[in-house]
Design a protein that fits this description.
Elements lengths: L2 E14 L3 E8 L3 E7 L17 E8 L6 E12 L1 H4 L2 H17 L7 H16 L4 H14 L20 E4 L4 E4 L10 E3 L1 H12 L12 H19 L4 H9 L9
Parallel strand pairs: 3-5
Antiparallel strand pairs: 1-2, 1-4, 2-3, 4-5, 6-7, 6-8
Bound molecules: zinc ion.
The site of zinc ion has 8 residues, from strand 7.
Length: 256
């Protein structure tokens, strides 16, 4: 039985039985883990008040035999992004972020960069008034870390640098030039500005993402592309994304 400790952000929580919950954490040191946590509700609740979304914890857990669900024995609140919980618009967007990380991250695969990216975007959402451009930066970085976003310098059909006309093929996960665009009739026209924004985002480290600005036109284009891309890879609509669409709160306002 190995006892592990790590800083972690809660991704999802599902109550089971009277006092327990199944939780998914994105940990800094061990990637995503799934755990059983006892005593979260009821009169003797140990963690109830503190097991909240949009917060960093120090957790302690150990492996159970023959299962990938760990026992979480300690869960100490380290930092809460309180500004998120106070704003409905921020809450639903932050839930979307958590759902995305949960869906795109495999269990038990170390990825401190994904953890830092998640902490970065929660901090960004807590701090900024307009958060949608930050979410685009986050999504593209997450796709890159998941190995799904290649460099857009060359056409995936003929390996040449595309001229004026470029298309993004969700199926190929890359760029098609004008000559090759027929190979995927669903390929989406991609402006030079959007292509160079994606390449720029790939080159920046997480801690420097906040320095990037995306114009309104490019952010609209990227929004559409990212939605298609995510839907293609997950094969489903994210509940939180559908909700955001319904209440219409994704703005195309670029943050300063
Ligand atoms: Zn080509």
């Amino acid at each position: 039985m190995t006892i592990q400790k790590s800083e972690a952000i809660l991704l999802a929580k599902r109550d089971i039985r009277e006092t327990s919950a199944i939780v998914a954490f994105c940990t800094r040191d061990f990637g995503k883990i799934k755990g059983l946590i006892k005593g979260v509700r009821g009169p003797q609740a140990k963690f109830g008040l503190y097991l909240r979304e949009f917060a960093k914890f120090d957790i302690v857990y150990y492996e159970k035999q023959r299962t990938d669900t760990y026992m979480v024995t300690q869960c100490d609140l380290k930092y809460a992004y309180t500004e998120i919980a106070e704003d409905f618009d921020k809450v639903i967007k932050a839930y979307y972020i958590l759902e995305l990380v949960d869906k795109f991250t495999p269990l038990g695969e170390k990825s401190p960069e994904t953890y830092d990216l998640l902490a970065w975007i929660l901090d960004f959402i807590a701090r900024e008034k307009f958060v949608d451009s930050g979410i685009i930066l986050f999504e593209l970085k997450l796709l890159e870390y998941s190995g799904l976003l290649p460099s857009l310098d060359f056409c995936t059909g003929c390996s040449k640098r595309p001229g004026r006309e470029g298309y993004f093929s969700v199926r190929n996960g890359g760029l098609l030039c004008g000559d090759c665009s027929d190979s995927d009739i669903q390929a989406i026209r991609l402006s030079k500005g959007a292509a160079s924004s994606i390449n720029m985002i790939r080159k920046h480290k997480v801690e420097n993402l906040g320095r990037l600005t995306i114009t309104n036109t490019v952010s609209k284009e990227l929004r559409m592309l990212i939605d298609k891309f995510i839907e293609y890879h997950l094969g489903e609509h994210l509940k939180t994304r559908t909700f955001i669409k319904q209440v219409g709160t994704f703005h195309s306002v670029a943050s300063p």
